[in-house]
Structure formats: structure tokens, C-alpha cells
User: Fold these one by one.
Assistant:
Number 1:
Amino acid sequence: ISYNGTYDFEPKNEKASEAKQKFKKFSISVEDIAKVTKERAYSLCFNPSKDKILICAGDKVGNVGLWNLNQNSADRSDEIFQYRLHASPVSRIQFSSNEYGKMYTTS
């Protein structure tokens, strides 16, 4: 794989070929981007529940940000919530697989 603005590779099997075709259609617009943490992100996690899709990020100074992708407001401040949970980089974020709504962070 080489990078020159796009990834170009020869698929090794049919699944890889299908994935390559799907990625060719993939695009990101400015409206789809948000600054979830104040500083550089160190860890990411997402919660793909049926009710709410949350993107979580932990940054280099201990902040954890939650981005509610189900919100559709013109102002991103309604969608993103930031908390100072640690005094050092957040090394891992994980949602509980047993208890809905619980999230664990480590620093």
C-alpha cells in the first residue's frame, strides 16, 4: 500500500475487492467533522447502541469528550460534551458490554 493522497492496492480476494469499491465512494465533508476534545486525541471509542450513537475521545491532558451523532443541530456545542476526568493522557476508553450506559476510562 502506498499513500499519495489516496490508498491504492491490489485486492487479494473478493472481499477485499468489494471493500475497495465501497471505499472509493467514501467521502467526508466539513459538516461531518467535530473537535471532540480540546487537545490531541489519544484514545477513541464508539458506542453503537440502537438508541444513540456516541463517539468518545480522550486527549493528552485528561479530557474526555462525547459526541452524540444522533443530534442534528446547527450548533455543534449541543452535540459535544467535554469532561476533565484525568490529570494525564487518557490511554483507553471502553463501553461496558454488560451494563448499558457505563463507560470506563484509564489514564
Note: The chain is about 10% helix and 35% strand.
Number 2:
Amino acid sequence: MEMPSIHDSVNDARVAMDCCIFYKDAEYEVPRVLKTPRNKAPERRKKTTKSDKLLVVHRLPAGVLPEHLTEMLLSNTFVSPTNVADIVIAGNFGKTTLEFHSSAHATLAFE
């Protein structure tokens, strides 16, 4: 399979799934992956920084406007960004940054 010259998250996921199916069908012994324990330090109240409220949206097709992103988020997550930066186009795709009222809103929009 020839890989594309640019990064494609969907292609990455497909190839990972193909690998899993191959190993499952071939009945290979795959060692169990152990979870790495999280830092057990006492939880401290984390201050919210501006970057916690931001989401980068990329691989936007040419012609997408900031209003389209706001409408899409409202209709699918009921969360609206407080600011949508200008979309920067490079080649056939664009990217922008969305700012939300809180990190919780950014997380809801991401999920």
C-alpha cells in the first residue's frame, strides 16, 4: 500500500485497524499491553490557561467559513466558540483556532 505524501489521520486509523484484523485473523500471539500508571501525586487544583480553552481545527476544505464551524458546533454539541480565528489556507486545506468560554466547553466541542 502506498502512503500519501501528507499526514492523514483517517488513513492512519485504517492502517492500524488493518493491522489489528491481520493479527486477529492469523491468530498471532500478541503480548498484552500494560497500562502505564498515572502520576499518583496529590491532585492540585489546576489553573485554567488560555491554551486549555483552544482547539486547532485543520484539514478544512477551501470555502469553509468561520460561521460554518460555529453553526456545526452548535448543531452537534450545543457549544459555541467565543472566537474563531481567520482560516489560513495552505494548498487545498485550511486551519484555524477556536476559542471557547472554558476548558470544559473546549473538551465538549472536541468530543
Note: Helices lie at 9-26, 66-77, 103-110.
Number 3:
Amino acid sequence: RSYLHVRGIDIKDAEVFFQMLLTLGGGQTEVDLAVLVSTLIRMKGLATSIDLHSLSFETKMLGRKQYAFMEENTERLQNIEKLVSSLLKQEVNMLSL
């Protein structure tokens, strides 16, 4: 940590940072050197306004995608419930004959 701190890179939670690097590297069990270097270069110094705006934009886009996913799956689940209910009614009618 002190090596990175001297170079203007402050990592508060090393475990979270390590997990982030693994995720960026495709979920491998070892951190890819190229991923580590590119991440450290991007982290050096303070966040600029464009960095914050980019992050805000990406967050909004992910939120929209998540909402659309939720809406689509809610509709699918409702259709499944209707089909199951219909099948159960048919089965009850057949058993009562």
C-alpha cells in the first residue's frame, strides 16, 4: 500500500481492489499484469469532472437496463402464473369428471 500511496494511488480496501481486478480480468484466479497496470494508471491522482460524469452516465445506463430487465421478467412471470393457473383449473375439471 505504501508503495502505491507514494505514487498517488490510495487503496482503502485491498480485498475489494483485488476482487475488482479479478473481475476486470475475466474472473480468473490470478490478476493479469496488463489489467493491474492499466487500472493503476487510471486510478492515479484525483478524479476529474469527466471521470465523474462518465461514472454517472454509466450508472444511469445500468439502472435503465436493470429496470427494463425487471419489467420484462415481471411480465414473463405473470404469464407463467397465468399458464400454471390455467393448467391447474384444467386438471381440476378433468378430475371432477
Note: The mean pLDDT is 84.
Number 4:
Amino acid sequence: PTVADDFFRMILQKQQLPQKRAMEDEVAEQMEELSDRLWQLTDRRRFESVEERVRLMTGSSFWEKQADVFTKLAERLQAAEYARFTTAASLLFEAFGCEL
């Protein structure tokens, strides 16, 4: 490498440096814009979800439906437990010769 080669390399590097910085700045700006759009989308979806939750819990007799479902489930569980108890009691009475 001669002095001229070093000189031209140095000039080329100095010319490319502002281009690299401009490119990096542009990429950073695009990333910032993308981040802002994603946050806006997230905020909008969160707001819509909260509205939907409020609508379901207040406007559509949500709690009444939930209570009805749980009451029916409790009835089924109680009936299954009662049937199990009567079957077990019948088997025990038969095994030991007692009557109900």
C-alpha cells in the first residue's frame, strides 16, 4: 500500500461515514414509528377487550347465567353423590343381611 492508496481509502471511508450514519438514523426512525404503531394497536385492543368484558358482565345478565350454570352443576354433583351413597348403602346392607 502506498501513501496514495491510504489517502484514497481514508477519503472513501470519510465519505461513507455520513451515509452510514444517515442509514442508521433512518433505521432508528423506522423502528420508532413501528414501535409507536404497535403500542397504538395494543392500546386499542386493550380498550376493546375492557369494553367487551364490561358488556358481558353487565349488559347481558352475565352473573345470572353464571349462577344458573353453577347451580345446575351443583345439582348434578349432589345427585351423583346421593346415587353413590344409596348404592354403597344398599351393597353394605345386602352384604351384612340388613334391610333398608
Note: The CA atoms of residues 7 and 13 lie 10 Å apart.
